[in-house]
Specification:
Shape: extended
Radius of gyration: 30 Å
Oligomer: single chain
Length: 398
Amino acid sequence: MADIKSFLKEREKREQNRTDYRTKILLHKVTAAYRVILICLVLVAVFVLLTVLYRRHVYTGYDIISSVEREKDSEAIDTALQNMVMTYSKDGARCADAKGNLIWNQTYEIQDVKLAKNGSVSAIGNYNGRDIYVQSTEGILGTINTNMPIRDIAVAANGNVTAVLADTDVTWINTYDASGNLLADGQTHMDLSGYPGAIALSPNGEMLAVAYVYVDAGTLKTNIAFYNFGPVGENVSDHIVSAYSYTDVLVPEICFMGGDTVFAVGDDSLLIYKGSQIPELEARYLFDEEILSVFYGEKYIGLVFASDDPENRYRLEVYNTAAQMVDSFYFDIDYMDIIFTEDNFIIYNETQCVIRTYDGLEKFNGSFQEPVNVLIPMDAAYRYLLVTDYSFDVIQLR
């Protein structure tokens, strides 16, 4: 009997030791887990703090990181082609990167240049002529020769070009690939469908938007038609998948933003359409004041109005691709261009620059050291390429 009691006490002691050991292991694991969670929370808090400080940081000047000398004809015009610089004139065009390296050189003779851009692709047409030159940031894509005088052009990111062509009694709207092959054609009569006052191609070249202007019983009207040259448009008449009519509205500009958003600007309204295959009206904003200028990026549309604030000359209203108004901003510099990036927008002219976030924080307000023709955002944060008549300067705000 004594042996049994001793055995039971010994077993109870061993079980107690095992329980204490398991408890210690559990406590160790819980403590380790708490430490990991605490470290993660501290890292998240530090990251949030640094992000807030970074976003709220205000820059007061800039440093020139690199500078490359250049020569430019006095009549030539600089423009951004995505992240590169395209310089064009009546005698030709050329494209260079931020280091001044020549990507391509296109020679031609054009009296009246018509320029269209879409992402990394550009098209240069000869108004009232018959030639269109197509290029990208990687090289020359081809030349299109039309058999009728050119009135307007639009280009897609894949190199397709739509041209408005003047004939004796009708106006043609033809679409070509970059090599000059005719992909689609159609004719319009002024007394029936009106005159194409604005055209735009989607990035993939499948969608075409046309704003037709005409007069009906003494009343100005605009019809906006969307053509689909892909599979969806094959089974509908004339490839027209949707159309909208507006009275007493003149639409001089229509643009695609990405693959599923189109906006049109009338003399008194902003029209935003959604749909990659069949665009439908998402929103219409009406204004009782004149729209002075229109700018846009991949995600934002900017309309410039005269200011009602005595301390500022202009007011910028910003809308996103969800057809929502982001906010309105006042500014007081004579703008040459307005650029929209992911986190901010840039208003600049030859000598001044203002950078603001969409929540209203002014990140930079300063002057350039030399007159600037074009400003191009670089990949790094708050690093830009400044194109002057004499140099390519990469700067970093500080």
